[in-house]
Amino acid sequence: MAWNRCFCVATAIFLSFLLMGLSVSCSSPATFISDSIFESQTSTGRNLLQAKKDSIFESQTSTGRNLLQAKKACPVSFEFLNYTIITSQCKGPNYPPQQCCAAFKEFACPYADELNDLTNDCASIMFSYINIYGHYPPGLFASECKEGPEGLACPALPPSQSTSASDESGSQIIFYPSLLLMLTAGFVLTPTRIPAAIQLLQFCHNSEVVKQIHAQLVVSGLLDRPPNAGRLLESYVTMSQIDFAFSIFSGLPSPDAFAYNTMIRGLTLGKCPHDSLLLYNKLLLDGITPDNYTFTFVFKACSHLEALFEGKQVHGQMVKAGIAPDTHVHSSLIHMYTVSGSIACAERVLAEFSEENTLAKNSIISGYLSQGHVEKARKMFDTMEARDVASWSAMVTGYAKNGMFSEALVTFREMMVSQVHPNESTLVSSLSACAHLGALDQGRWIHANLDKAGFQISVTLGTALIDMYAKCGSIQCGYKVFQNMARRDIVTWGVILSGFAMHGQPEKCFQLFDDMIASRTHPNEVIFVAVLSACSHAGYVELGHHYFNQMIHDFGIRPSIEHYGCMVDLLGRAGRLSEAEEFIASMPEAPNSTIWGTLLGACRTHGDLRRGNRAFRHLIVLEPMSGDRYKLAGLMLANAGEKDDATKIRRFIKENDLETTRGTSLVEVDGVVHEFTVGNIDHSKLREIHRVWRGLVEN
Q1: Mean pLDDT of the 251-256 span
Q2: Given its phi and psi angles, is residue 387 left (phi above 0), alpha (psi -120 to 50 degrees) or beta?
Q3: SS3 154
Q4: Which of 114, 120, 107, 118 has its CA nearest to residue 154?
Q5: Is 678 strand, coil or helix?
Q6: Which of 264, 344, 377, 546 has its CA 20 to 30 A from that of 589?
Q7: Mean pLDDT of 319-334
Q8: What does the angle CA 584 – CA 585 – CA 587 come to, to the nearest 5 degrees?
Q9: Mean per-residue pLDDT for 113-127?
Q10: Is 274 within 8 Å of 245 (Cβ atoms)?
Q11: Is-contact 430 422, C-beta < 8 A?
Q12: DSSP character for 72?
């Protein structure tokens, strides 16, 4: 785990910021703390960093040797190949370079992919057999056979022989063969070849290649040169190899600003924000002036930690140094304030920056929405000169999270009309809005656009599609998405199981549960809620008991209140009210209002007035002013013929102005969702609806 690689503990933040001696206030100028703290804590920061240094490598030399030996098996059987083509052309004490290299090219080019892959042993094995059969000195072909700076050009080969990328002329290329083949063969480079290896780092996207170059620098003793170490450090950080990067950094006797900035960036992006802040502190102790690059990633580290106090300290350092923030610093500073809950500070920083900053405004919009200030977020969104995908995504996601699902879909359509391509977060939020509204047509439209655009369906997006189809009444479409998913997680299984349970298809739910177990996916609490719900809807009492016990004894899951509620519902629907009441009495925790409400509903259905009254008495203790609970009790009394008592309850609800949930229906017509609520007379087409309804009743 990335966090396990981080070396410092949370208290290091406190120590590091004691050293900074400065904070910034949103309502007052920067205030200063005594500089004497800097002197008293100098050794602390150094000692903490030394612990990290010592834990990376026992010695640089052994690391280099180990890196050189770290290889995987070669997929080509070079021991069984015919080397005559080389040995016949390269004879005698004077090797004719042109003929020899042509022969080498003819032999090696069919295996260009394997030889260029520095994670295997292919090049080393090939050269070993060439040397054995031809008695050639090691490194002959690797050092001599080269055609230019781009490497050894190979003729175009059929796809079955090579899959290397082709250049414009159709030739296969081995990039830097003399250097790469020597690296893969395990040769130690001479000092004259080290600059070429360093230059290769800027083109390299393979961590194993970087480690081989690292090994060469260690073995050759050239790692101590700052330019070499700096390039290697940057490569490791780019590839998120944080431990290796820190081994380079900790070996520098006097790291410069570039090295500090690179390492701070790596620690911040590598999920070690505590370490990033501590390293920033050491930068100050070493007398290096931080710049905009430094502050960008230090503020990001504070954002990861939601460390408002520490962020203000760093802000104060920037003010004291007189550094004018660029767009990147401005954005990361505002983001730090918004994620830390200080929207007022973020607004003030934004007001002080004259340039239009879309990224910064996106952060503030997200901050507004996270605190429920939807109108403020929309106002800023509408005044933005330029909106990117993050701007639209923030609004769509914010509307959905605040329960404004219709607004979320309207904004999503505006986004599509503006020809801004949505990201996964936007799509998931839009599908969630469709699911809550029952907007099947709009959900299908989103799905169709995904297929049309060739959008890769991830686990998260696929799960959102399944959930949308299930809640919109089209479980088979959701199941088709489920079947086409290359990978599923436990949430995906939970959604499809709940979908079939909700749609009254318990057998399919049980079959999928067995499939999930067969796939070695360990069920969680949500999975068993879905399975128990399926048993409840189908009336499978004994099977429900089986799954409940299996959950406890086979999978070690402690039942939650939701599981107990499912069992009470299962027994109540089956009319086994006495068992349901006994089951409630045996619960290890106190039943909540949901449990008693479920029993009360079952008593109303089966006309058990005595047991229903007991459940109601428990309910009014837990929720004394719940209008829905009184309403349910009144319906039970009315069904049992106790009309006077039912009337008293209705009068009590009215006199105490208790709120009750009104029945709501959602109907989608031509992609527009219409909501109808009991007692609502405000719909624009109410007269037409009543006319059609009367026609249906009369006929």
Answers
A1: 90
A2: beta
A3: strand
A4: 107
A5: coil
A6: 546
A7: 91
A8: 65
A9: 70
A10: no
A11: yes
A12: B
Q: For 397-416, what is the mean pLDDT? A: 95
Residues 6+ apart with CB under 8 A from 228: 194, 198, 217, 222
Do 346 and 367 contact (CB within 8 A), yes or no?
yes
Burial of 640 (0-12, 13-18, 19+ CB in 10 A): middle
- Check if the beta carbon of residue 67 is closer than 8 Å to that of residue 216: no
Distance CA(342)–CA(308), nearest Å, equals 8
Tokens for 202, please give them: 């800027």
The radius of gyration of the chain from alpha carbons, rounded to an integer in Å, stands at 35
Residue 353 DSSP SS3: coil
Residue scoring higher pLDDT (27 or 254): 254
**In what helix (H) or strand (E) does residue 496 lie, and over which residues does it extend?**
helix 490-502
The DSSP result for 454-512, as a single string, is: T----HHHHHHHHHHHHHTT-HHHHHHHHHH-S---HHHHHHHHHHHHHTT-HHHHHHH
At residue 159's C-alpha, the angle toward residues 154 and 162, to 5°, is: 45
How big is the chain, counted in residues? 699
Q: Which candidate, 53, 55, 18, places its Cα nearest to that of 35?
A: 18
Torsion sign (Cα): 425, 427, 433, 436 = negative
Distance CA(343)–CA(377), nearest Å, equals 12
Which comes out higher in pLDDT, residue 578 or 665?
A: 578
| 8 Å CB contact between 337 and 329 | no
Give the torsion through C-alpha atoms of 140, 141, 145, 151, to 10 deg: -120
pLDDT of residue 128: 74
Long-range pairs, 251-257, Cβ under 8 A, ≥24: 251/53, 251/60, 251/223, 251/224, 252/226, 253/224, 254/286, 255/286, 256/226, 256/230, 256/288, 257/283, 257/288, 257/289, 257/290, 257/291, 257/294
What is the end-to-end Cα distance of the chain in Å, rounded?
A: 69
Integer CA distances (angstroms), 55 to 243, 250, 476, in order: 9, 11, 55
User: SS3 of 664, please?
Assistant: strand
**What is the C-alpha to C-alpha distance for residues 671 and 446, in angstroms, rounded to an integer?**
12
d(Cα 214, Cα 233) in Å, to the nearest integer? 10
Distance, in Å, from the CA atom of 30 to the CA atom of 282, rounded to the nearest integer, reads 22
**242-250 vs 207-220: helix crossing angle, rounded to 10:** 20
**Could you give the CA distance from residue 634 to residue 619 in angstroms, rounded to a whole number?**
13
pLDDT over 70 at 19, yes or no: no
Per-residue pLDDT of 192-224, as tens digits, reads 667 777 777 776 666 777 887 787 777 777 777
Predicted local confidence at residue 649, as pLDDT: 80
Pairing of strands 22-23, 152-154: unpaired
Per the DSSP assignment, residues forming a β-bridge with 676 are 665
Helices (H), 185-272: 194-200, 207-220, 226-238, 242-250, 257-269
DSSP state at residue 462: H
Q: Has residue 681 got a pLDDT over 90?
A: no
Report the chain's mean pLDDT, rounded to a whole number. Answer: 79
Q: Do the Cβ atoms of 90 and 100 come closer than 8 Å?
A: yes
Planar angle of CA 362, 366, 371, nearest 5 degrees: 150
How is residue 27 annotated by DSSP?
A: S
Please report, as a single letter, which amino acid is at residue 4: N
